[in-house]
Design brief:
This protein has 188 residues and is mainly alpha-helical. The protein has helices at residues 7-28, 35-42, 46-52, 56-79, 85-100, 109-117, 122-144, 151-168, 172-185. The chain is 75% helix and 0% strand. Helix 5 runs antiparallel to helix 9 (172-185) and helix 8 runs antiparallel to helix 9 (172-185).
């Protein structure tokens, strides 16, 4: 009889599964990736995968939730280094430019997921909306600290830069959006 699986092994296996799914879904698209491919990439048997997530949709939602925490956490860590509120808000676009320049950048994982599954999956659509609201709220908090009414323009500039860079594969939209926001802020 095999030894029981420990909580730590469950945690490690779940993380390996989410890592494999995130990489494959982001690189190839959610619908293009089958569960057998995820099984191979994660090294876990399908039976174990389905113990963690009863359906592929559940795996997609969990992957998006985990990515949201990491993505927004990394953004906040970068932005919070800037001492001045206006520079903090502009730092969003510096971080975006660096992200856009990363090898393998394929745009926004949430917009991609929404494009593929949003119309047919309430759970995915809810997770996408949750991420976009949380991102909006982050930007709004940084914008509020400037004392200027720039939260909505800053958010729309960021979203527009993300979508455009995802299509063009070029970090330039972040630089253009930063310049536009700097003009709104009255920052040279």
């Amino acid at each position: 009889m095999p030894a029981p699986i420990t909580q730590e092994q469950n945690r490690l296996d779940r993380e390996a599964l989410l890592d494999a799914a995130e990489k494959l879904f982001y690189e190839q698209g959610i619908q293009a990736v089958g569960m057998d491919e995820i099984r191979t990439a994660s090294g876990l048997p399908l039976k174990r995968i389905y113990r963690f997530f009863a359906a592929k949709e559940d795996l997609v939602v969990a992957m998006l939730k985990r990515r949201d925490q990491r993505w927004r956490g990394n953004l906040a860590a970068h932005v919070e280094q800037a001492p001045d509120p206006r520079e903090r808000l502009l730092a969003v676009f510096d971080w975006l430019a660096a992200w856009f320049a990363e090898p393998g950048f394929r745009g926004c994982a949430w917009i991609n997921a929404h494009g593929e599954l949003g119309p047919t999956s309430e759970a995915v659509q809810a997770e996408v909306r949750s991420h976009k609201q949380a991102f909006h709220d982050q930007i709004a908090a940084w914008a509020h600290a400037t004392g200027l009414p720039v939260a909505e323009p800053a958010f729309l500039l960021a979203e527009g830069a993300i979508v455009t860079a995802g299509i063009n594969g070029d970090p330039a939209p972040a630089h253009h959006a930063r310049a536009a926001l700097a003009a709104l802020l009255g920052t040279p």
